[in-house]
Each structure stands twice: as structure tokens, then as C-alpha cells.
Amino acid sequence: MNNMELNDLMVCAFRYALGRRSYITYTISDLLVRHKDKLFVQSKESILKDIQRAFDTNNYGMEMDKEVWQKLKEELQNDKT
Predict the structure, then answer these.
(1) Contact residues for 54 (Cβ-Cβ < 8 A; gap 6+)
(2) pTM for this structure?
């Protein structure tokens, strides 16, 4: 798998997980944090916008998921290189 394919797979997994009410929220967030160096800058920016939109519309999943997405948001904001 090349980096473009991995990037696309991670973005798709994130979009699947955002708003879900299951274990997948933590699993995907953790994966993105561990492999954030493989995400393209544009993908990081898109994920950050999606998280903010989910917060604005209360469509992030369960209340405990909000903390997971907030941590991911902070990680990506600190790593936009």
C-alpha cells in the first residue's frame, strides 16, 4: 500500500467513525494519532473541519466521544506540517 492509499483509507475510516456510537471512535482516533505523519496536510485540515462541524452540530457520537475527537483535533492542530 502506498502513502496515498493509506492516507485515503485513514480519512475514510475517520469519516465512518465520526458520529458513531461504538468502540470504533477510539480505535480510529488512536490510529490517526499514531500515524498522523502519514496524513497529507490537506487531509489533516479536512479532518479538523469535519470535527469542528460535528461539534457545532452535536453530531460527534456519545458525550465521551467528544473527548476522543477533541484530543485528535489537538494532535492534528499541533502537527499541521
Answers:
(1) 18, 19, 60, 69
(2) 0.92
